[in-house]
Amino acid sequence: MSKQRVVIIGSGMGGLSCGVVLAKNGYDVTVLEQGSQIGGCLQCFSRRGALFETGMHFIGSAAEGQTLDKLLQYLEVKKDIQLSELDRGGYDVICLDGKRYHFANGRDAFIEQMAGYFPHQRQQLNQYFDLIEKVAGASSLHSMKHAESDAAINTEFQLRSINEVIDGVITDPLLAKVLVGSLPLYAAEKDKTPFSTHAFIMDFYNQSAYRIIGGSDQIAKSMAHTLEKYNCKVLTRSKATRIICDETHATGVEVNGSDFIPCDYIISDAHPMRTLELINSKLIRPSFRSRINAIPQTVGSFSVYIEFKENTVPYQNYNFYGYNNGTPWDCEKYDEWSWPKGYLYMHFCQEPHPRFAKTGVILSYMHMKEVEHWIGTKVGHRGEDYEALKQQKAEKLLDSVERQFPGLKANIKHYYTSTPLTYQDYTGAEGGGMYGVARDIHLGAACRVPHRTKIPNVLQTGQNINSHGILGVTVGTIVTCSELLTAERIYQQIIKANNR
Known about the structure:
It is a single chain. The chain is α/β, with parallel strands linked by helices. 32% of the residues lie in helices and 20% in strands. The chain contains 14 helices and 20 strands. Strands 8-7-16-17-18-15-19 form a seven-stranded mixed beta sheet. It has a five-stranded parallel beta sheet with strand order 10-2-1-14-20, covered by helices on one side. The protein has a three-stranded antiparallel beta sheet with strand order 5-9-6. A hairpin with a 3-residue loop joins β12 (250-255) and β13. The chain is globular, with a radius of gyration of 22 Å. The two termini are 30 Å apart. The model is unreliable at 148-154 (pLDDT under 50).
């Protein structure tokens, strides 16, 4: 009996992990990547020999026996990567009005640390963490028994905003702001983003936090090697240009406008809008297209990638969130004069136990409308006005960080920049959004992207299907692959892979 053939469009975390799961279960998998480099948001890049991370700057829950650790073992990645633990006493540092607040790993340590800053809020902090654990614990992922499903969409904390829930528990307004200090990790918006999103992120990183030594592209390379081990293919410079359908289902994928790959199933790791652009079939109703095209997207980002002068900047094994307006909220609501309202500053871990940082990155929100004039132009060929805009913004952002890290600018050897336009070009994310589709409590299920499409053998995966980040995407992979394998089978395999 011949193997069933699966074509996967896109080689991000979702596409590659779906490929590995299916390859391990006997499917003939071909992964298509339109660019020359695999990995999507796992990609790294180098300039003048300096290495930079683009998306997966750090991960959580990766200590022995924790959730992500088990998934990486199952995906056969764990053996191929080295991790560097962030400071357990302050893996995230939140800076409001010049004062720094440290997030410690572990419930007890986190509460103890925060109660040191806010001694009158100890009881409220315990109530807050009870909620974090309640929401995160409701995820079947933690039990490793069966996959996440859409049954939990309408639970209480997916319909209540982060600020509403926290303000109902925490009575100190400053502490309420500190607790959402890491919201650039999910581009949360006041009165819109559900508390469940906050709870999953907090739980994920509170368990443990690590950087990947040498860059997260090693995760992509590991999964590509695993696919090759199972005699499957990862093809670069292979752009899916059409999903070919007959009256009832998809028959294959057109590549680079000419070649055709027949298959039994198609899984798209592309943004849902990009996926629909590939399909010309009556099976996709106009109303479904309209709904997907109307879903709001998360804000984009402006990035400054820094190469430091040798042995000048001590390595920081924590992430720094700086805010210029005394609050993490509403940083996406800026004008030319108020930008940047906030930023995230991180170092790259190039080797075990580095004393000095070689490279780092600063991220701040940026809307696509600032660069929409250059839509349709190519990277490196957008003109002098575009380069001048980027330089102006980079200098403003560097000045902002300099106020908290005096001498930083003097220790920069080179810096490079990117905008939402860059991100859209490399990932296909609509509007260059940092995390794809935005969650909005007022839209509920209307802003959810289903892993099934109206074409029975075309599925979707990636950050828009479940949630973003390495854990959210991998849970989405289990949901998508369970259509072919059943969730119970996958979870049994995860357990078995971790009991050897």
